[in-house]
Amino acid sequence: xxxxxxxxxxxxxxxxxxxxxxxxxxxxxxxxxxxxxxxxxxxxxxxxxxxxxxxxxxxxxxxxxxxxxxxxxxxxxxxxxxxxxxxxxxxxxxxxxxxxxxxxxxxxxxxxxxxxxxxxxxxxxxxxxxxxxxxxxxxxxxxxxxxxxxxxxxxxxxxxxxxxxxxxxxxxxxxxxxxxxxxxxxxxxxxxxxxxxxxxxxxxxxxxxxxxxxxxxxxxxxxxxxxxxxxxxxxxxxxxxxxxxxxxxxxxxxxxxxxxxxxxxxxxxxxxxxxxxxxxxxxxxxxxxxxxxxxxxxxxxxxxxxxxxxxxxxxxxxxxxxxxxxxxxxxxxxxxxxxxxxxxxxxxxxxxxxxxxxxxxxxxxxxxxxxxxxxxxxxxxxxxxxxxxxxxxxxxxxxxxxxxxxxxxxxxxxxxxxxxxxxxxxxxxxxxxxxxxxxxxxxxxxxxxxxxxxxxxxxxxxxxxxxxxxxxxxxxxxxxxxxxxxxxxxxxxxxxxxxxxxxxxxxxxxxxxxxxxxxxxxxxxxxxxxxxxxxxxxxxxxxxxxxxxxxxxxxxxxxxxxxxxxxxxxxxxxxxx
Length: 577
Hints:
Elements: H1 2-12, E1 26-33, E2 42-51, E3 70-79, E4 85-86, E5 92-94, E6 105-120, E7 126-129, E8 146-147, E9 151-155, E10 159-167, E11 169-170, E12 183-189, H2 191-197, E13 202-208, E14 223-227, H3 259-274, E15 283-288, E16 301-302, E17 306-307, H4 308-323, E18 333-338, H5 340-351, E19 359-362, E20 385-386, E21 393-394, E22 396-399, E23 405-408, H6 409-419, H7 428-436, H8 458-468, H9 470-476, H10 478-485, E24 489-494, H11 502-514, E25 523-527, H12 542-545, H13 549-552, H14 554-564
Parallel strand pairs: 1-10, 14-15, 14-18, 18-19, 19-24, 24-25
Antiparallel strand pairs: 1-4, 2-3, 2-6, 3-5, 6-7, 6-8, 6-9, 8-11, 12-13, 13-15, 16-17, 20-21, 22-23
Helix pairs in contact: 9-10
C-alpha cells in the first residue's frame, strides 16, 4: 500500500506532467525589498507568483480551484532591506511542485512578503506568526506586507535566469469603520488573551442598535450573536434603496444576474423589517476576533490560540451588554451563523450551555470528526487517498451540486503548505489544526496529518475527539449536557454541501434523534440539492436566504424566549412599538 501510494503521489502530485521541464534546468531568481518601504530586517513567508492571466495581479489569482495561477513559497528570517536574496529553487509550489515544472511561456511575476511578528507565549514558547492588521488575516492584502508590481517574464526550456524582483510597495492600513446612528463599533483589550500572547490583544464588535434605542433608556435588550468570518463592518443593513443606476453584476457562484442589486435590496428590506412596529427589539453583534492563525478564532479556548472562548463570553459580551443595555442573562442570548459561524454557534452553545439560550448552526464545519469532510480521522490511515489494495482514489474537497469536483484535500493542503508551514497559512485546514490540536514542542499546533503525504497521526486525532468533536462530546456528556441544552440545538445543511459538511450533520442527527433521556427538542433540516451555505429556508433559493440571517431565526428565538424565560424576566421593556 505504501509503495502504491508513493508511486501515485510521485506521478499525480501536480498536474501538467507533460509540461515538466528537464530537471537540469537552472533558476537564477533574486528578490529584495526597497528601503523606502521598510528600513529594518523582516521575518516571514516569501511568496513568488506566476500568472498568464492578465485580468488581475497574480496575488489575487491564487486558490485551490481550477482557475488558480502559480505560487511558490519559502521562509525568510532577518531579510535585509536593499539586499537581494536568492529564491530557493527547491521551494515548494502549487499547482506545480517545483519551479522546474513551470511550462515555458510568458508570465506576469509578482513577489510578496507575508511578514511575521515574534510572540513570547505564556506557555514558554516563542513563535513567529503573521499578526492580523485589520484585514481579517488575508495574506494578499494584509497591511504592512511588502510586494512588487507585476513584471513580464519569459520562462524558457532552460529555466529562469537573471530575474530580479524588487518589492517596493507596501499594503497601506485599513481605515476603521465609522459609527452611524444605527451601527456602533467597539474594541476592548482582553486580559485573558493579552496574558496568553505576551502582548496586548484586542476583541471587537459591530453592534446594530434597535429602533428607538435612544428614546427608550428604560429598555434592556436580548442579544443575538452572529458568528462567522472576520467582518469589516456590520453587513446586510442599508437605510436606503439600491443605488440608482447601479450596473448589474453577474454572480458566477449562484448563476444570477444583478446579484449586487439583489444584495442592496435585501439589506434595505432588512432595515424596513427592523423598523416595523411589531418587530422585536434586539441587539445584534458581529464579532471581530482574528488571530495570528486565521480570520477568526473559532470562538473556543485552544492550546495554540489561547482562551478565546472565555474572552468572548466573559469579557466581550458582558462589556457590550453593559454599554448598550443588554439584559445580560443566559436566557436572553442567542447564537447563529453559517459555515465557520455554524460550527462556532454550536460549539459555543455546547461549551457554555447555560450562558446562551439557543444556537442556529447553518452548514457547520465538521461537527463529527468521523466525517471530517470525507475523512474519518479515527479509522482512516491517510486523508488524501481512499484505501485500496490496487487502486487508491484521491479524496475530493470541493464539489458543485451535481457532484463535479474542483479540488482535492491533498491539493488544498499542499497550497496551504506553500503559503506557510507550521499551520501558518491562514487557511481552512490550518485553522482547524490551530484550534483543535495540542501545542507542539516548538509552540505551534501539532499536525493532524503529514501535509505532504496525508498520513494521519492517531494521537492527535484522539486529542481532537476528546476536546472538539462536538457529536462525541455531546454523546459522552449527555447526562449533564442534555438537560442544559434541551430545545437549544438547531442545525441546517444542504444535502449537496460543496465541502461535504452534510455527512457530519447526518451523524449528529443520528445521535440527537436516538437520544431520549432527555430528547434534545431541537431540529435538524436539510436543503434538497442545496449547496454551501443553506441555512434552513425551504421557500427561498440559497442566494436569497443567505442574505437573511439577521431576521430568519427571530420567530424561533421569540418562541424560545416565551418557553424558557425564567419567572420575573424582563419580557416587556424591549417590546415597544
